[in-house]
Amino acid sequence: QSVLTQPPSASGTPGQRVTISCSGSSSNIGSNTVHWYQHLPGTAPKLLIFRNNQRPSGVPARFSGSRSGTSASLAISGLQSEDEADYYCAAWDDGPNGYVFGTGTRVTVL
Amino acid sequence: QITLKESGPTLVKPTQTLTLTCAFSGFSLSSSSEGAGWIRQPPGKALEWLALIYGNDDKRYSPSLTSRLSIAKDTSKKQVVLTLTNMDPVDTGTYYCVHYSGGYYFGWFDPWGQGTRVTVSS
Question: What pLDDT sits at residue B33?
Fold first, then answer.
């Protein structure tokens, strides 16, 4: 019962720009920062973006995040084959939900 | 370098209690600004946050599971333990231990343990 809504899939050819949306509400994205996680097949999820648009050390600059109102987005510029993964947005919810994840988006590199 | 490793049973019967242990290194879990938690992923489904324990022993639980969940830490052993009572087949999935940082209320989870698979079946 994910509180944050993402498109189930996104795709692009190598080098293209792909954008993933994340829709929430005033109690989560609207009032708290957004984080993004990358889940590569067969590995543990990894923090990709924190505080809406900050990249942890080691995350390539082609990954960028933004937040506006009750929505957020993750952009992958210069898509590469190793970017094929599931991507999840997440945020704290001021209501009863605690830490909430998005429904997840599978990115396919064509 | 922070590392976390989960351990526990791979198969649990319905109605039983699941106990998972996370052995961590690279942090002390004694500061209120950091914590450790658990997140799970049922097969083919999205990630779901379960619980978080701060260094000051404050705890937060998923509202949908709060009556069944318990989290505790043993800083001397560098372990965090999650218990989930009354297991059901819908609790089947991969359970991840995670490090929490970034502030008391609005932090994030990084890094994650490798995960441990739990199947609930009679």
Answer: 85
